[in-house]
Amino acid sequence: MINVAVCGANGKMGKTVCAAVDFDPELVLAAKIDIAGDNVYKSIEDAHHAVQIDVLVDFTQPASIFENAKYCLNNNIKIVIGTTGLSDEQIKTLKDLSQKNNVGCLIAPNFSTGAVLMMMFAKLAAKYFDNAEIIELHHNQKKDAPSGTAIKTAKMMAEAKCTFKAGNCAEKETIEGARGGTSYSDIQIHSVRMPGFMASQEVLFGSDGQTLKIRHDSTDRKCYMDGVLLAVKHTYQYNDFVYGLENILI
Question: Which residues are catalytic?
């Protein structure tokens, strides 16, 4: 049995993860961690001192995830990170800590298998199109923008070529930010925050005479659970560092 702790256990994603862990016969929900609520540990450190934790799943906030992850990797707690907002430099630091301490760490911008396939399809299409942009849409309580999924998608596409603005004219924004943010290989990312959405992303490709749209929509948080459980079991078994669920799906 794998003893799992969930950090951010009283959040919407945290509650869904707790239920999924409880339902899986190979896992035990060893600790719920949150800053508020009853029957929870108030910190990872408190839980670590009280119970055996094999793998910790973190769905908290961008402001806290880096310190949470460092604590785990420095204290022999394997970690699965679903919280987005980590910078490239922070991800590199966590990779170095994971490898130095031989403690498993898996960071996934998105745990939905459909969303991961969307990213993989976008990477494949990037070989054949010279122009591309990304639109991501989330609920208005999401604090980081662009989403981790959009950033990861752009990184994967950027492996194909150095720019996706081939043939674009010189641009001038009359309203700052109208063209979105410029990411890897000049891919523009547009972030929408609005009630009514949960999580959606569309990757747009264009060339003379044609466009291609690759879109994924999440309508229920349950769609992430197969990926979360897969990540927990992988991280328990291996002490590697993984960035992106696609690396354990293949």
Answer: 138, 142
What domains does the chain contain, in order, with CATH numbers?
A: 2-107+221-249 (3.40.50.720), 113-218 (3.30.360.10)
Rounded to the nearest 10 degrees, the angle between the axes of helix 113-125 and helix 148-158 is 30
Other Cβ atoms closer than 10 A to 50? 11
Q: Cα–Cα distance between 154 and 193 in angstroms, integer?
A: 19
Q: In the chain, which residues have pLDDT < 50?
A: none
Q: Which residue has the tokens 């992988």?
A: 234
Distance CA 120, CA 156 (A): 8
pTM of the model: 0.84
Residue 174 is given by DSSP the state: S
pLDDT in tens, 90-137: 999 999 999 999 999 999 999 999 999 999 999 999 999 999 999 999
Specify the DSSP element, H or E, that contains 73.
helix 62-74
C-alpha span between 32 and 91 (Å, rounded): 25
Can you name the residues that pair with 134 across neighbouring β-strands? 189, 203
Contacts of 96 (CB under 8 A, 6+ apart): none
